[in-house]
Write a structure and sequence with these properties.
Helix content: 25-40%
Order of helices and strands: EEHHEEEHEEHEHEH
Strand content: 25-35%
Strand order of the largest sheet: 8-5-7-6-9
Radius of gyration: 19 Å
Shape: elongated
Number of helices: 6
Number of strands: 9
Structural class: alpha+beta
Protein name: Adaptor protein
Distance between the termini: 49 Å
Largest sheet: 5 strands, antiparallel
């Protein structure tokens, strides 16, 4: 089974014919209740709780089943930057500042966070850095192995100390 985000609040789960065969099923035999059970288990394993309705679309050639689902956004979004210049360029390009943001250091990269539902600023940051996958549990990794630089209001603090030239 493979999960692919398709927006801030949606994802698609691909259940292969082999996944179904392991459970003694074919795509045509999968019921709504069975799909819901598989989807809940798969999304829970990835730390993405399901929220709202799911839509099932089965393909007739027995290649598998696609399950479209609304997922609760993660509490935080993380973006990492290879260098300080990339981080500053991203912060300077933000359309607004976010007080609920933090800055950390991990694995030779700067990590900047935003609230989970923030879309406009997230789109801006993703142009300069790498969007970190919530399924890899960045909050836990940063807490255990990272180094906190700024706990809140990170873009404003950076701009105060490094204003645009």
């Amino acid at each position: 089974m493979t999960i692919q985000p398709i927006g801030a609040g949606s994802a698609v789960l691909y259940i292969t014919a082999a996944d179904l065969k392991e459970r003694g099923l074919t795509p045509s035999q999968l019921t709504l209740e069975g799909a819901l059970e598989l989807a809940r288990a798969a999304f829970a394993r990835e730390g993405m709780p399901l929220e709202g309705p799911i839509e099932i679309e089965a393909y007739p050639e027995a290649c598998g089943v696609l399950v479209f689902a609304r997922v609760a956004p993660p509490p935080r979004q993380w973006f990492s930057f290879a260098g300080f210049e990339e981080l500053l360029a991203a912060v300077r390009a933000l359309p607004a500042l976010c007080q609920d943001s933090a800055l950390a250091w991990l694995d030779g990269r700067f990590w900047l966070s935003l609230p989970g539902g923030e879309r406009g600023m997230a789109a801006c940051l993703s142009e300069f850095g790498r969007t970190e996958d919530a399924g890899t549990h960045p909050d836990a990794r940063l807490a255990e192995h990272g180094r906190a630089i700024l706990d809140r209001d990170a873009p404003a603090v950076l701009l105060r100390h490094f204003p645009p030239v």
